[in-house]
Design goal:
By secondary structure, the chain is of the alpha/beta class. The chain is about 35% helix and about 20% strand. Helix 7 runs parallel beside helix 9 (about 275-290). The termini are far apart.
Length: about 300
Amino acid sequence: MESNLKIFALIVTYNPDLNSFSKNLDAINNQVEKVIIVDNSNDATCQDNLKAYLKEKNDTILIQPKENLGIAYAQNIGFVQAIKDNADYIVTFDQDSSVEDGLIAELYNEYKKVEALNGIKIACIGPSVINERNNTRYDKYFRNSTNVNDSVYSVKSIISSGTLYNVNVFAAIGLNKAEWFIDSIDIEWCYRARYLGYHVLMTTKVAMKHNLGAKDMHLPLGKSINIGSPFRLYYVYRNWVFSLREPQFELAYKLKLLILMPIKFIIFANVSPRKSRMSFMLRGFKDGVMKKHSFLK
C-alpha cells in the first residue's frame, strides 16, 4: 500500500469483554493507521474499564456517548470522525470480529484492482464470510451476483463487519439510517448504493470468520436459519416494514419480505422463549406500520 495512505478502522462496542476484545483490537491496530471506537455500552463499569484500557493507546480514538445509540448512529459518528481526521479509507468491524493478519491490505488490493476498471463505481468491498460455528462459507451473499474479475463479485449486499469504504462515497450515498437503530442497516445502505449506480463488492480472495445470530437452526431441505436474541426480532420486523416503503428496494425484494414475514413468524414463535419472541415480532410489525422509531435499550 502507498506510504501516505490513511486507512482507519471503526469498531462499535457494546459492553465488551476486554480479554477477547483486546486480542481483536491488537490484530486490527497492526493493520491501520488509527482505530476509532464508538462505545455504545450502557454499563458504567464497562465504560470505565474500556476507557482505562485504551488510555495509553495513542493510535486509538474512543468516543463514548454514554448510552446505546444503536449501531447505525454509532457508525455514523465514526464515519464523520474519520472524514474529519482526513482518512482515505475506513474499514468497519464488530467488537468480536476475527481479523487475520493482512486482511485489510488484501481488501485494499482487491478494491484497487476493480477501481482500475473503467465504469465501475465502488460503494464498498467486503470479504467472504465464514460461519465460525461450522467453518462453512455463507454463500447466500453470492446468489444472483455478477463477476467483476476472477475473485471479485458485484453482490446485492454485504455485512458491515470487515467492509472497506473510500470515505468519499458517503458524500454521494449518505450515511446509515440512524433511526433504524440495528438490523437491516447494512442491507439498506448497500441497496441504496446500488440504486445510485454503485457496486457493492465481495471478494473470494479474502475471508473472515463471523457469526450471524447466536446459533443456527436447521430446517427441512438442508436449509438453516440464524437465531438471535428475542428483542432483536422487534427491529427485524419493524425495519422489514420500513423497507417496504423504500424506493431502493426492488419489487422482488419487497415480495420476498412479504413472504418471509409470516414464515419466519411461525418459525421464531416456536423457539424458546416463545411468548417473548412473538411479542417482539408483533410490536415491531405494528411500529413499522405506524412509522414509529422506538428504541429498545
